[in-house]
Design goal:
Acetyl-CoA C-acetyltransferase, acyltransferase activity
């Protein structure tokens, strides 16, 4: 267990050309906190989420992170650095996925597996393995995918009402199937520009800069489940999601929380990684929140899996969805009555899993 949880003290995310009053307020708070730290002659350590332009197969540079699990892995590194004596850390992600690449270049960079094996088809094959693993069938899976999208739509509507949504609901063409098990609305839409920052520091530094409890969120638990495998050849291993169970249990143990009953009592805000229905379904099963897929519809009727509408409706900036989720969760925890938040990251086709548990400091 971490004896003194690291603190999130500011964060903002800009999506496309958003210049809303909400973004300006978040960015101003971030700059105020950063200025206060720098006035103490402290330079935060920078952790970078690699953009799409970074070759997926290239060597990873120090303090750089790649994949959809990258932001949770960076958060773990921030935790280690602050425990080792670094006083402040910035997790940074910038990726102009929409405006910074031509269509052909973008398509080429996103083809991180063999050209004849698309990510969508890989996920379709993974879902088939998951169906077998859970003694289910294609009809049940399709029904659950529809229930998941309905759940995401509910949280997206709340985000719209609160001025946090950036995109309208998708048009009818997105409801067509792109693979036998997925419709367009079931997949992430990465065609957005993104810039995000999350500022973390030690408890001592938060006190030095007079950061009030109302603006602090504690990172109380981080769990990682990382497989070192050839994803394309090991879909059956990934589909068991034992490493996701490990990530969830590690985060709960570090936070000293039995999170599952708190989730079922609606005491935890969640931002689950929702690109392709198999991922949130795997989270629900692997965490023990449900014991079988038969229980999923009743759970989805009562509880929201995201605070944004998920990657399907809030959209996904390549390696940055979980960073956007961490930033959004920070903002929600300091502005609502909720005490706990959970953010999930899923890397590649699922070989990397990360769970972060956040807790409001003022409750």
């Amino acid at each position: 267990m971490t004896t003194s949880p690291i603190k999130i003290i500011a964060g903002y995310a800009q999506i496309d050309q958003d210049e809303s009053a909400l973004l300006h307020r978040h960015r101003a708070q971030y700059q105020t906190r950063l200025d206060a730290i720098q006035q103490l002659k402290i330079t935060p350590t920078l952790l970078t989420i690699d953009p799409l332009s970074t070759d997926w197969h290239s060597d990873q540079q120090p303090n750089h992170f790649r994949s959809g699990c990258a932001p949770i892995m960076a958060l773990k590194q921030a935790q280690l650095l602050i425990e080792q004596g670094h006083e402040a850390v910035i997790i940074s992600g910038d990726d102009p996925v929409k405006s910074g690449y031509g269509r052909e270049e973008r398509h080429q960079l996103m083809s991180v597996y063999a050209d004849d094996y698309s990510i969508a088809q890989l996920y379709n094959d993974l879902a088939n393995e998951f169906i077998k693993e859970n003694h289910s069938n294609e009809q049940q899976f399709l029904a659950l995918a529809d229930a998941l999208f309905t759940n995401h739509s509910r949280s997206h509507k709340i985000a719209e009402q609160e001025g946090r949504a950036h995109f309208p609901a998708p048009g009818s063409k997105w409801f067509s199937h792109v693979t036998p098990l997925f419709r367009g609305v079931d997949c992430a839409n990465p065609l957005v520009d993104f810039s995000g920052r999350l500022l973390l520091c030690s408890e001592a530094l938060a006190q030095k800069i007079n950061c009030h409890d109302d603006n602090i969120v504690n990172v109380t638990g981080i769990g990682l489940g990382l497989l070192d495998i050839d994803e394309v050849k090991q879909l059956s291993l990934i589909a068991r999601y034992e490493h996701l169970t490990q990530a969830y249990q590690t985060a709960c143990k570090q936070a000293n929380l039995d999170l599952t009953p708190l989730i079922t009592d609606d005491k935890v805000l969640m931002e689950i990684y929702t690109c392709y229905p198999v991922v949130p379904l795997a989270f629900l099963i692997s965490s023990g929140i449900v014991t079988s897929l038969d229980e999923v519809p009743a759970f989805l009727d009562k509880h929201l899996l995201t605070i944004t509408g998920g990657m399907n409706l809030a959209r996904a900036p390549w390696n940055n969805p979980a960073l956007n989720g961490l930033i959004e969760m920070y903002q929600q925890l300091i502005s609502s009555s909720h005490q706990y938040g959970l953010v999930h990251g899923n890397g590649g086709i699922g070989y990397r899993q990360g769970i972060a548990i956040l807790e409001a400091n003022h409750r």
